[in-house]
Amino acid sequence: MAYKIRAVLAEDWALLRELRLAALADPVASVAFNETYELSSLRGDDFWRRRAAQGTQGSLAETFVGEDEEEGRWVGSATVLDEGESAHVVGVYVRPAHRGSGLAAQLFQAVEDWACERPRVKRMLLHVHEHNPRAEGFYRKIGYVRTGGFVSDPKAPVLKEFEMVRELPPRSSRRSPGAAVR
Q: What does pTM read for this prediction?
């Protein structure tokens, strides 16, 4: 399958909403998100417009989507937040029919390229739910390792989300900003 990877634009808000709600409704993927379908489905259009526009407004966050080039449908996404020395990856989702297709790796390339353009970012950071071994396996495959740290799952505080990190290459050996995936 061929995918077009690009940053979300402000006018994409309705597509972003549909994909996010699909992610939150997915029984396998919903464990990975800190918000619920019920709450997100009640959010108004203005919320989704602001969320879609965050990258174009110069904020410290960007959401990338994967569009199936044959269907023209959004089939995956990943968001990255600039937190100073770390770029925090959140909201990773791939629709079931596209899991194992290489789309997740392409989305991670996009978020890491974005992070490499940030002046202070030295590492990629993410949290993976203890009941999401498939995701953790993927993260390990692309170079992430557990740090030993964790946070409690806000929806079920007795459960853990393990912190994982991947160091970025030194700034001098990174790709030029023009080489970023868009």
A: 0.89
